[in-house]
Amino acid sequence: MTSNPSNVMALTSNTSNKKETVAIFGTGDFGRALAYKMIQSGYAVVFGSRQAQISSLIPKGAEVLSHTEAAQKAAIIIIAIPRQHYNFLLPLAEVLHGKVLVDVSNNLKLNQYPQSNAEYLAELIPGAKVVKAFNTVSAWALQSGTLDASRQVFVCGDDKKAKQMVMDIVRALGLTPLDQGSLLAAQEIENYPLQLFPMWKFPILLSLGLTAFFFFYCLIRDVIYPYVNEKKDVSFFIAISIANRICPTMALILLALVYLPGVLAAIIQLYRGTKYSRFPDWLDKWMLCRKQLGLVALAFAFLHVLYTLIIPIRSYVRWRINSRVISQVNPLDNTSAWLSDSYLALGILGFFLFVLLGITSLPSVSNSVNWREFRFVQSKLGYLTLILCTAHTLVYGGKWFLYASSYRWCLPSVYMLSLIVPCIVLVVKFVLVFPCLDKPLTRIRQGWERNPQYSEHIPHIQLYLEGEQKT
Amino acid sequence: MTSNPSNVMALTSNTSNKKETVAIFGTGDFGRALAYKMIQSGYAVVFGSRQAQISSLIPKGAEVLSHTEAAQKAAIIIIAIPRQHYNFLLPLAEVLHGKVLVDVSNNLKLNQYPQSNAEYLAELIPGAKVVKAFNTVSAWALQSGTLDASRQVFVCGDDKKAKQMVMDIVRALGLTPLDQGSLLAAQEIENYPLQLFPMWKFPILLSLGLTAFFFFYCLIRDVIYPYVNEKKDVSFFIAISIANRICPTMALILLALVYLPGVLAAIIQLYRGTKYSRFPDWLDKWMLCRKQLGLVALAFAFLHVLYTLIIPIRSYVRWRINSRVISQVNPLDNTSAWLSDSYLALGILGFFLFVLLGITSLPSVSNSVNWREFRFVQSKLGYLTLILCTAHTLVYGGKWFLYASSYRWCLPSVYMLSLIVPCIVLVVKFVLVFPCLDKPLTRIRQGWERNPQYSEHIPHIQLYLEGEQKT
Amino acid sequence: MTSNPSNVMALTSNTSNKKETVAIFGTGDFGRALAYKMIQSGYAVVFGSRQAQISSLIPKGAEVLSHTEAAQKAAIIIIAIPRQHYNFLLPLAEVLHGKVLVDVSNNLKLNQYPQSNAEYLAELIPGAKVVKAFNTVSAWALQSGTLDASRQVFVCGDDKKAKQMVMDIVRALGLTPLDQGSLLAAQEIENYPLQLFPMWKFPILLSLGLTAFFFFYCLIRDVIYPYVNEKKDVSFFIAISIANRICPTMALILLALVYLPGVLAAIIQLYRGTKYSRFPDWLDKWMLCRKQLGLVALAFAFLHVLYTLIIPIRSYVRWRINSRVISQVNPLDNTSAWLSDSYLALGILGFFLFVLLGITSLPSVSNSVNWREFRFVQSKLGYLTLILCTAHTLVYGGKWFLYASSYRWCLPSVYMLSLIVPCIVLVVKFVLVFPCLDKPLTRIRQGWERNPQYSEHIPHIQLYLEGEQKT
């Protein structure tokens, strides 16, 4: 940023209006798309190509030259050709010396080559400054201008100035550069566009597994049992009744699993007496996917709400109401009215808080709150949600625990199973809140160590948990 | 970015603390608001004004000088006066030579003048470097600090350094500059704040038209027909029953219209044997508003869910249930129980996926996924949604196709009409998935051409469709 | 940004590869986390520490030196130690002269010290250039890389170059620097992470107060009155019936309170005949929390929808339906069918628009619309929502106003109370829309003044209200 008028005057020389020239090697879709966008943003673009004649698809305003000529004209050369053709650059090594080479390539598979494309390029042309960039952007997005997916461009490279020059171009194209450090990060950056929700893999596999288990469990208890014992065909229960038994169960268990690792970590810290000691790997991974677990739980809760609300429209329910109506009309039972209304009210409030948690985990919302607010919502409101949902389930169940009919073929009903994890989490958390445990835990989290010899070197220091305090 | 301490030392000279001075011509709301914000961000501000005395509204800390004096003091001059008064700058041409003039003006109508205000200014003062900026920001937003609407400041200009200086100011004010290229973009930037959801115009007009058509169609079939034939007044059907017939119909048709252009484009590409040939204009436009179409469809689906869920509360429904109850109680029909539960379950799952699609189209969510993930959600999950919703409608309808009563006055029921487009899309897509068609299509999308002579120059190359591959 | 190749060549000198060195004083959690992230982003880090031996937790690649040695090595020194130990820097004053000191500290309470930590540091070491930064970032976020909460780093400082250098580091770490001006802003920046939803305090307290009032009001009318008069125990009404009476009431009143200040401001402007005159403070504050009021109203509306939709599942309702069924079946009353369906339809449409308003207030959505679109949604659609919701309530109530039974113990029913504010707002707004009032109001908002002597100096000029026009 220039800070005095005299400096500004210097800029008014006639060089300032000269456009910066960028060379692009390769006239494929991506090279052309990038050229099109760069010309729009005020750069001069020269293509380096073997044949100068295939110019009908080249964006208007771009020049097509031989590779050598193009490289001589520009300080930055974008290599928009596949990795397998990189060795054609070898004869150009001299002219490329000192130039910034931008590797934009992607692979077709995760870790396709032992060495990243950018590192391979740097090895081929040691005199050039290789920067990895633009591989996360799609040719279509560049041209249509409708950047629906990521505007983020991960940039890495060993030469800081070269990286800065590329990041300036990224910014000029209206994209957001993200500096990922040295060229060692290239492998990771090249893998990024090939990933399909990596953080979601565990939560989704877990919930698929649990859903399958509970489905067969319910099938046996609610469809096969009555068929075997009473010759009653209620197979249509599969569509809604069983789904609506699985959804709340999954939602409650997954929500409890969001808070279980925090409780486990607190126990480990209390036991070890220090926070400077690594958690086991599984606990680390579990903690990092808590947000995803919570959102899957919210999805199940949402389905549970929908399944519940359409109950009165179901023809089975209408038939049952009608047939029951005729048979008898009992006087209103005040207790059952209380129970029915309470569990519904608890469920509504729990779901409401759950939706609030979901909204605050939207990137743009969580980005506009400070850490204290984020922790308040995710920890305080999160536990309140868990308490409300557990209470909702408990009140719904009511006295069923005592009835023998709840244990068909010795299988307790699903909703009893669903209460195990949440109750454990809540009980342990309740115990941890007592001052005799809370005080040492807070001290440990502020850096105090009971047995300093326990601590080990932690490259990626764990400072988890809501209690964390800075300086 | 400075990279060595010695360089840093140079900056410690006493000039570095001197504030940069910006001049503002015009003391209207916007000029004052900008001055207020700039002073807050550490700039020195001088106003250029005809009368030096109207200083009571001027933000504290700003100087008011004559235009000439103000222009001499600063390298950047913000022209915060209406276009019709620009010619008062003519006598100042000499002092403005080499300065950066920032045009912040807006018009009252789209394309009010044949030439954009910024280009007009550049023509008036050819010696100055004109930059267009800040026109998208509101004076109120600048002052209140609550930037609820866009933080984006579109910047364009022919001089790169001048543009960079203005973008530095934009960043210093906490706003996001977006480089739009040369001054030719000024017209578009000036039109931007006057637009009212331009991308939504077509989807909303289309859905209004279709809604009106289906409304009158239903009115004839469901209200006028029974009145004429059976003298039954069911005009109250308009409020909910008919609305709840239109909403799902619209949702399904619009959702199918989201996927129809992709299917059409695939057919065109297969027929032409190349992707390097422009699609017809209507197809281009249709493709660019698919997201909006999908969101309007989601809105109708949401209304359909609400309308359906309140059914049991309606007094008409309660009355019908009551009156039917007395008359007869049939034994539970297992098939109808299955049908009723399946279509509800299909609807719930379809709506759930639809909501997921809607969430991923939120800017901050779509911005944090990579292209592969975005395509997976919008294409795979999108088609699954369409399949589920179509199945929901088909199962709901069931055997009605066969009943004569479904054809009042030869008009088929609305829900039959609603199935036409989705079924066509699904059938064609199903055909396109077969290897004999999928293989050539994939090759075409990777750049292969059956008849290379077909391809023409495409300034804005079309690379649509999910199959698109880079490099 | 470098603009000519010759300039680029200059950068290829061997200095460009030298890493920039940053010193960190303090080896606590935050210092180490910052060092870890900086090393990742390509900086060289030296720790300044009293003891050189506590290096087991120090991130790999960082050096640990004495404070003096570390300070000599770097141009930027991050002070990651608590404020109470700042005076240990006094002996280092000479070596710190001309250096950039980055204050990253936070306090435990709002306004804990009369002077901000950064200003205190600047006073201690007058020769150094103090910059406040990084205090909003958590150590955990830096290390885990999952920046769920704010990526924003507020930066302030009196020296522009020093600030720029720190902002470059912030950007290199993948965070977003926000320039907050001079060091005077440090107090505010230090208070920021200690705040807990400051903008939400008033709306939430207001709604808690009103909710409590309406709860006791309903308790008296709907539970105590029947108990006293008819000895009927309907205490279970508390769980759902009363909640579902409070929620819509609160939603409607809060929504009206969103639009009331705009109407009041218009009246004040009309009365004073100028917009250059400050509104009373309470009106200013009220206006700034309209968004929050609206979102709380949406939350109540959402709860109201949930409470309403589960009505048919409630055992009380089922019992009532059953018992009524037996007793009598009336013929369908067309008028009541119309009324029931209309109020449901109005409610659905009102809620739908309300949800739309909520979605457009998500930061990422509101950030991608221009001001005209934002005003259209928040003002036009907002009023439409208010009209629909008020009509929903009016139609629901219908003829109840006339029934004596609506006035138990002379207390009108809650829903009558809920209509007072919305009706006032709508009536006044309706009056203001008449040309005889709208024309002068528009002129006033464009800067016209009836009695210029009224206007006073307004440091934070008020330009509220949707009618606002720019230059």
Automatic annotation (TrEMBL), chains A, B, C:
It catalyses: 2 Fe(2+) + NADP(+) + H(+) = 2 Fe(3+) + NADPH; 2 Cu(+) + NADP(+) + H(+) = 2 Cu(2+) + NADPH. Residues 249-377 form the Ferric oxidoreductase domain. GO terms for molecular function: cupric reductase (NADH) activity; ferric-chelate reductase (NADPH) activity; metal ion binding. The chain crosses the membrane at residues 204-228, 248-271, 292-313, 342-360, 381-402, 414-437. One of its GO terms (cellular component) is endosome membrane. Keywords: Copper, Endosome, FAD, Flavoprotein, Ion transport, Iron, Iron transport, Membrane, Metal-binding, Oxidoreductase, Transmembrane, Transmembrane helix, Transport. Residues 21-107 form the Pyrroline-5-carboxylate reductase catalytic N-terminal domain. Its main location: membrane. The keyword Transport applies. InterPro entries: Fe3_Rdtase_TM_dom, NAD(P)-bd_dom_sf, P5C_Rdtase_cat_N, STEAP_metalloreductase. The keyword Iron applies. It is a multi-pass membrane protein. It is found in: Endosome membrane. Signal peptide: none annotated. Its cofactor is FAD; heme b. One of its GO terms (biological process) is copper ion import. PANTHER family: DUDULIN-RELATED, METALLOREDUCTASE STEAP4. Belongs to the STEAP family. This is STEAP4 metalloreductase. It comes from Nothoprocta perdicaria (Chilean tinamou). The gene is STEAP4.
